[in-house]
């Protein structure tokens, strides 16, 4: 099968630092190549991939030293290029947000599939989708679908990671709690700090501070960081996760938004590290309660979950990750969805 994957241009594929969507795209396209498909990736030139790369921009937007970039112009230019080459492919797989590609391909939506990697509860999305109702969609969790139930959903494919990417650390955890991701209001690092303080454990924060989050960080979070019990170590890359997540007693994921998946949750599980997460978004679909972690609804419940961490077997956490969240399983499920679409075209 000749498949084109169209990636967002904000981060490289895979990302050098923070970034979940582009990491999943990297594992997916490499896995499809391994399974014998002819795969082309439309992305920035700094992508590292086994697919045929069509570089549509010299560099990912976030790491571009030029502050005067236009994400809208960059993505529109890429879509024009994809449209010009569309006849070379059996299927176009889009990973873009907010359906920006729909008008470009409305004359053959059946040859496309879209995986939205973010939340879908924005006010304008239902009206937009009703204008282009024939585009097939693949969700990354069942919960993600709820705001857009009328969409043409053909499958749910949860994220997966290569099983040899992360391995459990062969020693007892060091007794600190970990917060990894983005320092934004909806990720609720303030909750993580409160949980650590009330539990008496150290909290290590490894997180990106985006431009939109700087005021929140400096006004709300920075005053809580004392450098002793609450430590901020900055944004980390893939190579730093073994030490950071593997040595943690647990990952705290106290989100306050409808998280469509949460890649860091299964990254922690890959190290055998359990997760304490708020009951929001897809968390009940990802975490096996009392097996790979605890889903909580309050600070009190989270503190109680910290006390119960010794009840969880880190080997079982890892085994559950292997059974449920491998990249191979993810690739095979996407491949099955592609076959379903191709069968529909043939009929």
UniProtKB/TrEMBL annotation:
Gene3D superfamilies linked to this entry: Glycogen Phosphorylase B
Entry keyword Transferase: yes
Gene Ontology molecular functions: glycosyltransferase activity
InterPro entries: Glyco_trans_1, Glyco_trans_4-like_N
CDD domains given in the database record: GT4_AviGT4-like
Keywords assigned by UniProt, alphabetized: Transferase
Boundaries of every Glycosyl transferase family domain copy: 176-306
Organism domain of life: Bacteria
Domain spans labelled Glycosyltransferase subfamily 4-like N-terminal: 18-132
Protein name: Glycosyltransferase involved in cell wall biosynthesis
